[in-house]
Structures are given as C-alpha cells and as structure tokens.
Amino acid sequence: MRTPIIAGNWKLHKNRAEAAELIRQLASMVQDAEATVIIAPVFTTLESARIALEGSNIALAAQNCSCESSGAFTGEVSASHLIDVGCSHVILGHSERRQLFGETDDLINRKISAAQQSGLHTIFCIGETLEEREQDQTLDVLRTQVTEGLAGLSTEQMQDVSIAYEPVWAIGTGKTASTEQAQDVHSFVRGMIFSLFGQQTSERVRILYGGSVKPENVDSLMAQQDIDGALVGGASLKAEDFARIANFRAVN
Ligand code: PEP
Fold it and tell me: Given a cut of 80, is residue 251 above it in pLDDT?
C-alpha cells in the first residue's frame, strides 16, 4: 500500500497573515485525510507557517532549494536551512523553475542529491510541453527527465523521493489530462523506476499527478492504479477546494 500524497503548491501567493489564516481553516478540514497532506508556501512565510501548523497533520514543504549546502551563493536557500525552519519536503524541478528560471535536468539532479543528503523528502516534477506531446515526444522527454534527474541516486535515497507528473499544458490552464492519459504516463514512469531501481522501489514510489486538479476531477484521477496523489496549484489556495481534494474518494 502506498500512502497517497496531496501537496499544495502555493507558488508566489499568500503573505504571513494570509498563510496563517489558510492553515487555520485547512487544519480541521483535513485532519481525517487518508493521505500525507503537504503545503508549500513562499520561503519568507515558512517560519510562521510552521508555527501555524503546530498540532495539525499537515507537513511543510519548500518550493525549491539550492544544490549548494553553504558558502558564497547569494540569494540561495539550502536544504539544511529548510530543515532548520521545519520543512520535511521540497518540490524540485517544477516546470515553472525549468521554463522561467532555466533549470536543467543536471541542476535538478544536484538539487535532489542535496535534498537527500539533508534528509528532505523530494517531490520531483516532470512533464512534457504541449508541443512535445503533439510531436509524440512525451515518453522520450519523460525518459530523459527521469534518467537525468535521478542519476546517481541509490535505491535507499529513492525511498525519499516521490515523482509528480505534471503535463506543462495542464498547469494553470484548466485543462486536465484524461484519467487514461495520466494513468498511461504514470505506468510508464513506474516502469522506468523498475528498470533503474528495481521492483521494490517501483512498487513503493509515489507518483503524483499535477495539472488543474480540482474537487471535480480528483476522485477519478485517484482511482487510477498508478496515481498515488496530487500536486495542486490553484485549487490549493482555497481551503474548501484543497480539503475536498485531500479528502478524495477514489471512484471509477
Ligand atoms: C502546479 O503548479 O504544480 C499545478 C499543478 O498548478 P495547477 O493545479 O494550478 O494547474
């Protein structure tokens, strides 16, 4: 049995007071969720979010971290700083980091290694653009992202990595991959983990779906055999919507 993960990526939204208020609303709504519930607020609100989360079953994630541990790296935040502020998880390789900030598979790989060394659980994002899908390159793109992003990781380190399949064309667009499209890709990715890390790791790894997940589509997505959770952007900013997603009912 793989415990599902429902993670909210707050992106560049919510100041400290707004974050604390959203956490206050969410905490009671997700207390019985049968999933690991995670929120990823803005860096500067992590400390106050950790305090607001006390007594809840919601874990704290960052949306990024440096591949460096310390030194002359102006503007960076290291994995150990994230542990220090109370994070247990970090989102790495998000398509916005890849597309808007030029993050490469190699850089993401080094970030994942740094996160593993500090004891953070990584949610590693992969996904193809619309152009790549239309040119039938989806599986090639994902193969490269997975192989290069996870290069050099041991089977043991993989225990602390989850993967989020987020088709770029479905992020923030209101378009969701069909349950069949998502299941096909998730099954392919699990097969890749099998060939890279063996059967046990492939059966254990959580593969989340992300891309316009909403209360209306979460149940059918979560009913798919290889979909083990959701990475949620827009809908994670409203307590009722995110709580409904966290309290999904898997139905066909
Ligand atoms: C995301 O940013 O990871 C995401 C999936 O966003 P949205 O749910 O808004 O599509």
Answer: no
Q: What residue ranges line ligand 1, CB within 6 angstroms?
A: 9, 166, 171-172, 210-213, 231-235
Helices (H), the chain: 16-29, 46-53, 79-85, 95-101, 105-118, 130-134, 138-149, 155-158, 179-197, 199-204, 215-222, 239-246
Query: Average pLDDT for residues 60-89, to the nearest whole number?
Result: 98
Helices (H) and strands (E) in the chain, counts: 12, 8
Please check whether residue 122 is in contact with residue 112, taking contact to mean a CB–CB distance below 8 angstroms: yes
Catalytic machinery residues: 94, 166
Structure tokens at 55: 């007594």
159 band by pLDDT with thresholds 50, 70 and 90: very high
Q: Which residue lies with its CA nearest to atom 2 of ligand 1?
A: 233
pLDDT > 90 in the chain, percent:
96
Q: Which atom of ligand 1 is nearest to the CA of 94?
A: 3
Domains for the chain: give ranges and CATH numbers.
Answer: 5-246 (3.20.20.70)
Task: Give, for ligand 1, the residue of 92, 171, 241, 242 to mutate: max count of ligand atoms closer than 8 Å to Cβ.
Answer: 171
Going from the Cα of 121 to the center of ligand 1, the distance in angstroms, rounded, reads 19
